[in-house]
Task: structure prediction
Amino acid sequence: MIRLISIICLMVGLLYSCADNATVSGDELKPILPAVPFAYDGLRLPKGTNPAGVTNRNIKFINGQPVMINGQFVFEPVGNVTIKPWVATLGRVLFYDTKLSLNNTIACGSCHHQEKAFADGLQFSTGFEGRITGRNSMGITNPIVQNNLFWDSRSKTLHDLSLQPVQNHIEMGMENISRLIEKLENTAYYKPLFNKAFGTEQVTPERISTALSQFVGSITSNRSRFDQGLNNNFANLTELERLGNDIFHSDRAKCSTCHGGNNFSALDGPGDPYGGDFSGQDLRGATNIGLDLEYKDKGLNNGKFKIPSLRNIDLTKPYMHDGRFKTLEEVVEHYSSGIKQHRDLDSKFTDGKGNVKQLNLTHLEKKALVAFLKTLTDSEMISDPKWSNPFKQ
Ligand code: HEC
Ligand code: HEC
Result:
């Protein structure tokens, strides 16, 4: 228990340090917000990517299977994501407010720290009443151009995701949504915020979800050294980084066939900068990369997990759905020599007869890949005040 408490205290994003917690109750913290909201509608998207709400299409699934008519996928509109500055401002306050958890100790920001590109640096995170999440907290960068969210790709849009952690017992302990509504209605600083965002003070689950999705959706990045390089033929990168870029996009390493486009994420949806390569295994942007012969956590199914975006990857360690790898070197070593021959291993890692094919990278190639991955860090995103904790004074 003591150990759990000290883990909680260590979590940088926590609104109240544990020591303060007792004294805070009567004398609650209020968010400090700018009089004119930040320009959350000015999305900073990587070159060639589109927000899901603009391309407005998504493969239709029924019971986990894609719907096909005459051999063609069927598309359905996805929720339109138009970011409004006051709605996202409300979302910012909600994101960092521990009131969203049953016992006022956990906020979204407790497990999603801005300076770590919204991951938390831990293998697993501590949620409500010290319970540990079953999966590694995910970084949040450009979720608006992805159509599959969570490690098992179970959510397609930000909107249907946002209330899930709040209602999830382990993460925040607030499965009774009407109690949350009541709590927010009784918190003075929310009245003007709901009013500015939606025109009335009324608190509803729909509004909470919309505000959180808009805030999270506004978290975008196109200011990394890689992005700068897109405009100057990568003259700003070192020789090693440029070699890494070439290997990443080569037929041999195939990294970019999964971590694709300029968002380095799955290529199978509205975020697909190439207009939709829906070939086989990458459906729902989840696949099996041979981490284990037997998966304890099956993910979407049979060890298929979301192909995560590699934006800000240097900041979101440890890696994989279970945080098993501490460094990028370990991740690259997995692809080079550690792929297991799982029966559902992605065919990109087999020789055509179903036998596993390791990449067998040289020492230099591995170093170059790691150096390249580090060019995806956007240090402006992680210090931009519009995504920072408004309760910190
Ligand atoms: C106790 C830690 C914890 C808290 C609190 C928490 N999260 Fe998460 N978050 C996680 C973990 C762990 C995952 C991956 C879960 C999974 O795949 O099942 C995740 C996944 C996500 C993702 C998916 C990212 C992607 O690329 O697919 C988003 C977005 C997100 N959380 C937003 C939020 C919001 C908004 C809140 C507050 C309402 C919140 N989180 C609260 C730990 C947490
Ligand atoms: C067949 C598709 C595929 C290919 C090819 C591929 N990856 Fe991945 N990558 C994934 C999936 C899926 C995951 C998440 C697996 C999990 O957590 O179980 C992942 C995870 C990662 C992660 C960790 C991300 C995180 O947030 O924890 C890194 C880094 C990474 N890959 C880099 C690379 C590099 C570098 C290459 C090329 C050498 C590569 N990948 C090739 C599908 C792929």
Q: What stands out?
A: Residues 253-255, 257-259, 287, 289, 291, 305, 307-308, 310, 313, 316, 319-321, 328, 331-332, 335, 346, 348, 359, 369 surround heme C (ligand 2) (CB under 6 Å).
